[in-house]
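May I ask for a sample protein chain and its fold as C-alpha cells?
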Amino acid sequence: MHHLDLGLYNHQITFTCDLLKSKYGHLILDKIDNRLANIPRHSGLKIFKNRIQTANTANEYRNLMKIMIFVLDDMTEDNDLNKILMKVYEDWNNMYLISRYEEFCEKDLENFEKLIRSWAKQFVDIFQEFSSSRLKFPKLHSWVQRQDIVTNLSAKSNQNAKIIYPFKFNNLIWKFNLNNAQEFINEELKNNNLNSKLHFGLNNLLEYLDIYFALIEQNNLNNSIVKIYSSVTIQNGLKIHATNSYYGKACYSNVAVAMNFEELFEYLSDHGICYGQVCLLAKIELEAKIFNLALIQWYDIKSKKNSILLWMS
C-alpha cells in the first residue's frame, strides 16, 4: 500500500501556523518553536531545533509527527480550539500508522476508511479559509477518493488469507517463466513490431523488475510466472489499456500518478501529480505472492528515469 503523502502534512503544519497567527499574532509561533526546542532528547527521536516553518524534508515531517500533539497540547487559552487541533493531528498520525501496515485485517480497513473521512472533513473545515485555492489540491482529493476502494486492499483474516483487488486484468497476451524471460523477450522482439509501446515495455521490463524487486528486497524469484495483459478494468468500470489491437487500433492509456513526497524533487510535477502513458500491464506470480505492475513512460520529466514500474493497489 502507498504511504500517506507527506506533502499534505506540510500543508497541515503551514495552515495550523496561519490559523494560530491569525488569532494570536506572531508570538504564538515563537511559543511553538520554543516547545519544539525544549522537548527532551529520546532515543530514535531527532530533536527539531529550527523554526517549525523551515521544515522541508520527509524525515523532518516524520519527526514532527511524533511530537506535534505534545507541542499543541494546551497551546492556547481556547480549549475548544486546542481540542480541534489535537483531533486532526491525532487522526493524521493514526492514518499514517495504518498506511504503513504490511498486512490488514478487515477491522483495520474499516478503521482506515473512517479515519480518512474524519481527517479530510476536519482538514477542510479547519483550514479552508487559509488556502488561496480553497484546498483544491490534487493530492488531497486523490487521497480522499482512495477511501472508496480501501476495503479492496489486500486483507488477511486470522484464519484464512484472502486478497481482493479493486481491478481485473483482461486478455492475456503473453505468459512466460521469469527464469527464461530474456530468451522469450528476444524472440518476441525479433518477430513483432519493434516500434510499438507494448514492445517498448517488454524490452524494458526486466531492467525495471530488477530495480523494483531490489527496492522491496524480494530476492527469491525462481520459477516466477510473468503474465502480460492488454487491459485492466478498475472498480468504477473504466479500463486502462496497453495493447496494439483494441478494435483494430493501438491503445495506450494516459494516467496521472500522485508522487511520493520524497521523490518530488526528481520530477516536474503538477502539484505533485505526474503524467504518463501505460506501456505494459503485468502480473508477476511468485510462490506465495502476486505483484500487479504497470510500466509507465513519463511525459515532460526532468528525471533521467524516463519510465517507472508501479505497484497497482
In short: Residues 25 and 95 are 31 Å apart (CA to CA). Residues 138-165 have pLDDT under 50 and may be disordered. The longest helix spans residues 106-127. Helices lie at 6-24, 27-37, 58-72, 79-99, 106-127, 138-145, 181-191, 197-215.
